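Show me any protein, keeping tokens residue-aligned.
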Amino acid sequence: MLPRAFRRAGTGVLISAVAGGVLLSATGEAAATAGPSSRKKAAAAAVDRYDAQKLRWRACLDRDEMPGLPDDYYRLECATLLAPRDWNVPEGGVDIRLKVSRLKSTTATKPGMLFTNPGGPGADGADLPLLMVSARRKKLMAGQDIYGMDVRGGGGSSNITCGGAQNLTADPRLRSDASVNLQLDAAELTARACDVAGRELSQYVTTPQTIQDVDLLRRIAGHDRVNWLGFSAGTWMGAHYATRFPEHAGHLVFDSNVEFTSTWENAFSRQPLGFQRRFEQDFAPWVAKYHSVYGLGSTPQAVIASYEKLRARMTPDAPVQDAVTLDDVIAGTMYAKVLFPDAAASLADLNGYLRAQGSGKFRTADQYAAKVRKSVALIQRDGMSNTFSGDANSSVFLAVTCQDTPWNASRGSLVKSSAEAGKNYPLIGWSTIDQPCAFWNRPAGVDLPTPTGHGVPPVLMVQSVNDPATPIEGARAAAANFEGARLLTVTGEGDHGLYAGGNSCVDKKVDDFILNGKLPAAGATCKGTAMPDPTAVGAMSAARLPVRGTNPLLALRQISELVH
């Protein structure tokens, strides 16, 4: 789950408001004028027609385009699933297309169904089953048919758009009346742009609609129950799926948990604390430990002071052209410690650039600038932008978070709350003034009951203590308010997205629960994995490594590049 600061719309070619294949039938027009009894029959008949679809599965990956990968990668199959644009009126006659995927069980005669979702909300999920291949989850792949989906509105499914509206790059720490009003106006303009450009479909891009898509996939796949593996905002979706369809909920695993028993507004209010804690307690001490490598300070306090000095000196001529971008880049690396070396190297090179420029060594400064731009581009590709690529996915993020649950924020409250958050948690706290949801034209009739866990099978929640994007306070609150939840805490860890990320303790407990229904003991913990060592012989740039939480297909392309 990304904070608003990272939800930058794509530049270049805009994605169409609704992808090709949206159909309007005469049946839908006739149903609109029918009586209640006739409408009920028409709705049931429409659902039956969707359930009767025969999916045409095909290989997702082309061996010619991506040769040399292990055979299991080519087993992933993709198909197009048709769903009604509005599940409240399935007979309405407007279809949307959903890209779905499956990785069939390698051995089981009666495999379970595991649905996976990477979060966002809005991140592409059709590639996510490949994570099980790259992480060698052999027992899981043997016992489950593993499914993924690009959710409605984004990725390879029918798209929505906000018309390419861009985040404002004005520094949110600047608090003059003119600056504050400019930032609020920009957030309001984003909300209006989304409403004008994409409302035909975006009003139906909500969790209540998406979980109906998932259950349609379950029915077509022929499974009575769905096992669930949701990361980040995928925990929100999973909790609401189980609440809506408790009789079809199987073994549910929620990894890096949104406070799914509350509202999106409350969940996001915890993020400034989470990112600041990760920055101060994990990143800064690690950089200080390697002062001989990076030269940014031998204590955490000195490292933080170095960052603030660098931030204050960003100009349009610098390799990182503004302070907002620098905040985004560094905050983006807080998701995974494997990105720490590239973040620290970027800051060290930026420091070298400023020193060389100040001393008149312009050729040296240019060399440092080139290194900064290269490392920042890699971080943005592998640590941030890859998760939300283009206008469609970032538009889904806004549609879901702005429409699922009400927002009470106003211009005045945003100014006050962002100032308080900025004072205490400056890394991203000030930027919380940028909140289009405060100005969103929320559609009527979005029904999303608060999950309680009542009548739902037990849920395994996995959570690191220093997760930046979904802080542990929210996970603990959700666990306390969701009947039957079991929280597995990962100590000495701050990575966002833990399963299949190299922690054998987490992997074993999650596999055991999905496959056998065995929950860890109450209060169980796992230890986090080791921090990277930039001085190790053969240490690889973090941006060249597959990172949990990014698009697995990009990781595969990186692997293919390394192999060849």
Observations:
- The chain is about 45% helix and 10% strand.
- The two ends are 34 Å apart (CA to CA).
- The beta strands are 58-59, 77-84, 95-103, 112-117, 144-150, 226-231, 249-255, 459-464, 485-491, 525-527.
